[in-house]
Amino acid sequence: MRFDLNRMETEGSIDSSFTIKIDTLDSEFTEMEQYWINQKEVPVRSAFIFYTAMRNAKLVLSKMKERFEKVDETGNNPAVACDSLLVMPIIFEVYQKTAQAAEEGQRLSPFLPNEMLRLVSTLRTTAKLVRLLPTPDEEVKETDKNQLRKTAVELDKKFVAANLLSDI
Amino acid sequence: MTKSLSPPISSAISKVFLDACVLVSASVYGSYKDLDINLEHEFYAKTVPLFEIIKKYVDKRIGIVTVTIETQAVAVIAKAVAEELEKKAEEAPELKYKLFESHAVFFDQCLAHLQENLSILQREPVLQTESDRHYPEVAVMYNDLQDVARRLDINKLINANVTRRYRKTVRYEVYEQYKKRYKQLLKLKNEPVEESDKRILCESICLLKLYQQTNPNIKMYLASTDYHFSPSDSEGEITKTIYDKFQIICHWPDEVAKSLKKDGFA
Questions:
Q1: DSSP characters for B179-227?
Q2: How many domains does chain B have?
Q3: Can you give the residue range of the structural domain that contains B57?
Q4: How many CB pairs under 8 A join A and B?
Q5: Is residue B35 in a domain?
Q6: Contacts of residue B38 in chain A, CB cutoff 8 Å?
């Protein structure tokens, strides 16, 4: 995929079939996302971090696809390829580390979830800089709104509840 | 004629060390107006004035943190969200997918806010060996305060200070007054200080000593919402002892903001 993006950047034009490759990658991430929801080998806290990593990679890919699809309207040519080149290596690293974590299973290194958190943060920051991160409202477009409301209320209570530092 | 330079503002010699709980309070919020969804940490509003000043004077490097603080802040957010998710997923396993998704939405938002907040703070390196040097003194201080808290008996105080003939009539009011007066100690009695808090205090002492080498008049604040540092309504014996022993001014973030204004950061 990096080769395709490099080519587009050099040629100065976008290949619209690239969206098919984005879809393929997205399916991989969806599978991996499902894996972390259902796995029982590692604590929920770790599984949740890897799930979040997959979700964030998918969010960036969805924005990338949207920009590739709208390239004729926006004249964003070949800027979207240049922008994608910046985030793609991070996305692949996120995937690699998540796959490694899945392989490690019960033997999961305690450092890997924290490393992943840092990587996700880098991904989001970079994607935001190059307009490849959906806005907060776009992020929740397909999320169940009732569930979102319930979660907001519960988390609100949770953060109020106690001195959360007590048993770290 | 050369234009005279304005005098350097006194606030340039003030530093604020932010406790992890302040970073968490400042980062836990999320609002989706269209959906009528609003999440906000109960102390979020108290952190706003402090972060406004830090941002305004970002070139003065007023706000400081360490790796310990950063790591703790992320851990607190992750722990809270994951615990809630785990609980809800056990109650309704069929909703697992939706629960992971909705929790991830807020988790991502909070971490993004945390990154934004960290971007205006100075991350200071602290040598573990240097920090460890202060540990015994800090540990002894908290142990002594814990002893005072254990011995604190409000009824005895009332008997000693209120004349016998009024004792029965005013006991309730006086009891409440003493309770308020010694709130910080009473809380310490029920919830002893955590090791992580002692580490934070050690690091802030290290940094103060480091700054004092170049500026002996430096003022060091420790902004915290934790009563193991900051006063809880009343004056606070812990807060006072920390100041007397280490010259570190512990207070709530909004109160630190007020002090900074007095120091010249208007």
A1: HHHTHHHHHHHHSPPPHHHHHHHHHHHHHHHHHHHH-TT-EEEEE-S-T
A2: 1
A3: 10-142+189-262
A4: 135
A5: yes
A6: 152
Interface of B with A in 101-130 (CB under 8 A): 101-109, 111-112, 115
Q: Please tell me the least confidently modeled range out of A78-87, B118-127, B171-180.
A: B171-180
- Other C-beta atoms lying within 10 Å of the C-beta of residue A15: 15
Residue B124 to residue B198: CA distance in whole angstroms:
18
B178 domain-assigned: no
B170 within 8 A of B162, measured Cβ to Cβ: yes
- The torsion angle over the Cα atoms of residues B218, B219, B224 and B226, rounded to 10 degrees, is 110
Judge whether B131 lies within some domain. yes
User: Which helix H or strand E contains B16, and what residues bound it?
Assistant: strand B14-18
Task: Select from A114, A137, A155 the Cβ nearest to the Cβ of B106.
Answer: A155
Asked whether residue A154 is assigned to any structural domain, the reply reads: yes
What the block records as the tokens of B58 is 């970002």
Four-point Cα dihedral A89, A94, A98, A99, nearest 10 = -10
Residue B151 lies in a domain: no
- Residue-wise pLDDT tens digits, A89-123: 999 999 999 999 998 888 888 888 888 988 998 99
- Is residue B162 helix, strand or coil? coil
**Prediction pTM value:** 0.82
- The pLDDT value given to residue A164: 42
* Cβ <8 Å between B106 and A152: yes
Evaluate if residue B27 carries a pLDDT over 50.
yes
Domain range enclosing A130? 2-161
Residues 60-89 of B with CB under 8 A from A: 71-72, 74-76, 78-86, 88-89
Instruction: Write the DSSP assignment of A48-105 as a string of letters.
Output: HHHHHHHHHHHHHHHHHHHHHHTHHHHT-TTHHHHHHHHHHHHHHHHHHHHHHHHHHG
Q: What angle do CA B245, B246, B251 make, to 5 degrees?
A: 105
The CATH number of the domain where B30 resides is what?
Answer: 3.40.50.1010
Q: How many domains does chain A have?
A: 1
pLDDT at site B124: 95
Does residue A111 fall inside a structural domain? yes
Give the per-residue pLDDT at A161. 61
- Tens of pLDDT, residue by residue over B78-122, are 888 999 999 998 888 888 899 999 999 999 989 889 989 999 999
